[in-house]
Each structure stands twice: as structure tokens, then as C-alpha cells.
Amino acid sequence: MTETTREAVRAYHRARFDGDVTAAAARLADTFSFESPLISSGDARGHLDGLAAFVRVVTGVELISELYGEAEATLVYDVHTATPVGVQRTAEHFRLRDGKIEAITLIFDATRWHPVMAAAAPGGAR
User: Fold this and answer.
1) Angle at 69 between CA 59 and CA 62, to 5 degrees
2) Counting beta carbons within 10 angstroms of the beta carbon of residue 39, is it exposed (0 to 12), middle (13 to 18) or buried (19 or more)?
3) What is the pTM of this model?
4) Exposed, middle or buried by CB within 10 Å (0-12, 13-18, 19+), for 28?
5) Three-state DSSP state, 9
6) How confident is the model at residue 51 (pLDDT cuts 50, 70, 90)?
7) Which stretches of the chain are DSSP H helices?
8) What confidence tens digit (pLDDT) does each residue in 63-99 have?
9) Angle, vertex CA 65, rays to CA 86 and CA 75, nearest 5
10) Collapsing DSSP states into helix, strand and coil, what is residue 39?
């Protein structure tokens, strides 16, 4: 099962940062939830809706560590962005059921993202 976990998580990670929403969605369970310091979603569609906008500002991803268990995984990586944030160190925990990702928890310091998101919001920062 650990090999299935590794395959599913690696494929999802690669697809997401390639901006391939279809391939990323194929790795998610029918019942799915996502939580991060900035957003949360109770379904795959809500999670993947913002993917294209996010990938547009990503200039690279540097994987630091991968840890796999029977039905869970944790990735630690740096996301390089074309924003004032620069490089964002991120930890991502995955829970899987039957080889599909059913929950993702993203952990990072969101402080530097608040002004970026405010400027990108309709009407921009004021």
C-alpha cells in the first residue's frame, strides 16, 4: 500500500504544479477536503478552481522531503514564486483511502501572502 500512496501523491503533486487539473483531479477521492492557512474546501472542485491562478505565479518547486505511510504522506518543499513572497517553505499532509487522496492539509506561514491576495482581489488593495 505504501507504493500506491507514493504513486498517488507524486502524481498529484506533479500534475498540480504542471497545472494539469484533470490529472490532479483523477487522484482525488469522491469525498475530499482541503485546508490551508488561506483557504479551505469541502470538495475537489472548490480546491482545484484556483489552481490555474496559483500555478501562473509559481516559477519552480524544490522538493525537500517525502515521507510515506500506508494511507498517509507528507511532503516538504519550497515553492518559488514570481510574487513579493519569493520562496515559500511548505509542508503538505495527505490522507488516502483506497489509493485516492481524501484530505490535504497545507501548512505554511501565510503572513507574506495577505497583501498579495488583497492586491489580486476584485478592486485591488486600497
Assistant:
1) 15
2) middle
3) 0.88
4) buried
5) helix
6) confident
7) 2-18, 21-26, 44-48, 51-57, 113-120
8) 999 999 999 999 999 999 999 999 999 999 999 999 9
9) 75
10) coil
Run of H or E residues at 106: strand 100-107
Strand order in the sheet with 28-35: 40-41, 28-35, 100-107, 87-97, 72-81, 58-68
Q: How far is CA 75 from the centre of its chain?
A: 10
Query: d(Cα 86, Cα 108) in Å, to the nearest integer?
Result: 13
**CA–CA separation, 30 and 58 (whole Å):** 27
How far is the C-alpha of 52 from the C-alpha of 20, rounded, in Å?
Answer: 9
* pLDDT tens-digit map of 9-43: 999 999 999 999 999 999 999 999 999 998 899 99
Amino acid in position 120: A
Q: How far apart are CA 35 and CA 47, in angstroms?
A: 9
